């Protein structure tokens, strides 16, 4: 279950990265296309870091009321 929560936290970043890459593929090679590809790469890195951070956090052991 916690694996699913980690995946859903990274999902928005990955979806946005996919959108940037889709847009970059429509462009001719050049600076604008390269910028979109760099942005997508950074978004994927953010998703990776968020997933790593979420998986290393200790579970909350407090009782829920």
Task: List its traits.
2 helices
Description of the molecule:
- There is one protein chain.
- This protein has one domain (3-52).
- The mean pLDDT is 86.
- The protein is elongated.
- The longest helix has 26 residues, at 31-56.
- The two termini are 20 Å apart.
- It is mainly α.
- It has helices at 2-26, 31-56.
Please provide a brief summary of the model.
Residues 30-65 are annotated as: Disordered. The protein is an all-alpha fold and 65 residues long.
What gap, in angstroms, lies between the N and C termini?
Answer: 20 Å
* Overall 3D form: elongated
Strand content: under 5%
- Per DSSP, the total helix count is 2
Helix and strand run: HH
Q: Main β-sheet: number of strands, strand sense, barrel status? A: none
**Share in helix:** over 70%
Integer tally of domains: 1
Low-confidence runs of at least 5 consecutive residues = none
Rg, Cα atoms, Å: 16 Å
Mean pLDDT: 86
Record field, number of beta strands? 0
Region (Disordered): 30-65
Biased composition (Basic and acidic residues): 30-48
Write the layout of secondary structure elements.
Layout: H1 2-26, H2 31-56
Helix pairs in contact: 1-2
Biased composition (Basic and acidic residues): 30-48
Region (Disordered): 30-65
